[in-house]
Amino acid sequence: MPVVLENLGKRFGDGAPVLDDVNASIAQGEFVALLGASGCGKSTLLNIMAGLELPTSGALEVPSDGAAFMFQDAALFPWLTARENIELALKLRGVGKSERRTKANELLDLVHLGGAGDKRPHELSGGMRQRVSLARSLAQDRQLLLMDEPFAALDAITRDLLHDELERIWKETGRTIVFVTHNVREAVRLGQRVLLLSSRPGRVVQEWNVTEEHRTDAGLAGQLTGVITARLREEIRRHAK
Amino acid sequence: MPNNPTPLAEPVESPISTSSISGQAGSNTGEPESRKVHAALTRSSTGNEDLRELESGLDSLQSDAARAARIDWSRILLPVAALVVLVLAWQFYVSLGFKRRDLVPGPLDVLGQFGTLWADGSLQEAVWTSLQRGIVGFLISVVIATPIGLLLAQVAPLRRAFGPLISGLQVLPSVAWVPAAIIWFGLTDATVYFVVFMGAIPSIINGLISGVDQIPPQYRSVGTVLGANRVQMALQIVLPAALPGYLSGLKQGWAFSWRSLMAAEIIAVGGTIGFGLGSMLNQGRDLADMTIVMSAILLILAVGILIELLVFAPIEKRLLRRRGLLAGSTR
Description:
- The structure holds 2 protein chains of 2 kinds.
- Chain A contains 8 helices and 9 strands.
- By secondary structure, chain A is α/β, with parallel strands linked by helices.
- Chain A has 2 domains: 1-67 and 143-241, P-loop containing nucleotide triphosphate hydrolases (Rossmann fold, 3-Layer(aba) Sandwich); 78-141, no CATH class.
- In chain A, helix 6 (184-190) crosses helix 8.
- Chain B has a domain at 127-265 and 302-320: Orthogonal Bundle (MetI-like fold), CATH 1.10.3720.
- Chain B is 67% helix and 0% strand.
- Chain B is flat.
- Residues 1-37 of chain B have low confidence and may be disordered.
C-alpha cells in the first residue's frame, strides 16, 4: 500500500476542521478519483499527501521519495520552453545533462507534443500546457502522482481527449494516481475507485468501484454517474439551512 | 435518494454502441460504426494513433499562427520627428530675441561649441571618462547588490531588519555622500565610485526585492514539489521569475549611477579626478559660457538615451516577448 491515511485531520488555526478522521488506503498502481463538492478539503488533503502542508492529527504513509504533483493550472515557468520546463524537473532530480535532453524528448513524445518542445508556455494552448505539465510531473519519476483538478479549466473537447490521454499514460507507466475532481463524470470516466468526500469537515463517506465495463458501456457508466451524483447532492443538501 | 432525478445520466436506457476499446494497435479507425463515440463517460478515441491525430488537430486549431516580424518605421520616425520639432521650437524662441544671446544660445551656437570641443579633444575625453566610470561603477554595483538583494528577499528576518534601511538609502540623494567621500578619499576616483555605489546599490537591491515579491506563490510550490533545495530555489526559480522586476531595478540602478556620477564630478574637481562630463559642466559655469553648459547637458542626456535604447530596451523587449508579456503594450 503506497498510500495509507489514518484518522487524518486538519484545521487551520482555531477554525472548524477542514478534514476530520479521513481514512483511506490506495494500492500500488491504482487510479483513485477523489470526489467532493467545493469546500470539502480535497485540495488540502492532496497538499498533505504531497508534503506541502502538515496534518494536525492522525497519521499518513506515503512513499519515502515523495510524490509528483500536477496543479489545476499548468504552472509552467514562462521563462523556459516546454522542453526546458521538463528538463528542469529532471535537473532538480539530479539527472545528468546529456540524459536530460533525451528523456525530455521522450516525455514530450509520450504526451504527443514531439514537435512543440521549443515553444514557450504562452505559445501553447491550454490543453498543450496541461500535457507539458503532465510530462513534467512524469519527469519527476515518482510512483505516486497527485493531480489537483488538472482539467477543470479546459474546454470540454480538450478535456475528453485528455481523459483518454491520461488513461493511456497511466496504463503505460503504471503510476499510482490520486485525481481530485468535483466532476462526477470525470471521476467515473477515470477512476478505478471513486471516493466521495463530505464537506465541512471533509471525510470519506462512500466509495464505488468502477469496472472495465463502465469504460466501454455508456449506459452503465451513466447509471453509476447518476448514483454518485445523487449521493453527492444528499451530502450538499445536509448543509442547507 | 434513489428517487432523485439524475440529469447527468441521460444515456441510461439507450444502448448506444461505443467506440472500440483503445490500446489495440490493429483497430481500424475507418469503420463507420466504430466512430459512434460517447465522450465524457467512456473512452472517446480509438487508440493511440487516433488520439495523436485528434490532439494534433486540436493543437493546431488552438494555436495562433506565427506572425512575421517586420520593421516598424514609426518607431524610428516618430522620435526623430519629435526631436526636430523641439529643436525648431528652440531656434524659433531664440530668434524672437527675448534674452541676450550669451544667456540663451541657439541650437547653432551650441552646435558650433560642439565642434570646438570636438576639435580640441575635450568632448571625447569627457564622454569617455564619464561613460567608463559610469559603466564600471554600475557593473560593480550589480555584482554587490544582486546577492544582497536575493538574500534579503529570501530570508525573512534579514529582510525585516535591513529592508527599511535599504529603502531609506534609496531616498537619500547620493550627492549627500560627496562631502563625506571627499573627506575619506580625497579628490580621487575612489570618491566618485563611492558616490556611484551609494546611489546604485540600494536601488538595484530594491528592484530585485520587489521583483521577488511579485512572483506568483505557485512557482515556489512547484519548486518545492520538484524537490528544489534552498539554493536551487533561489537560483533556478526565484531569480529567473523575478527577472522583469530585477531588470527595472537595474535600469533604475543605472540611472542612479549616472546621476550620482554627474553630481560627484561637478562637486569634486581637481586632484587625480579626470575630466568628465560633470567637470565640463562645472568648467562652463566657471567660464560663464552657456554654450559649454548646454553642450554638457545635451551630452549627459544623449548618453542616457543611448544606453537605454541600445542596452536596456532590447534586453527588456526580448525578456517580455519570450514570456508573452508584450502583447497589447505600447512599446
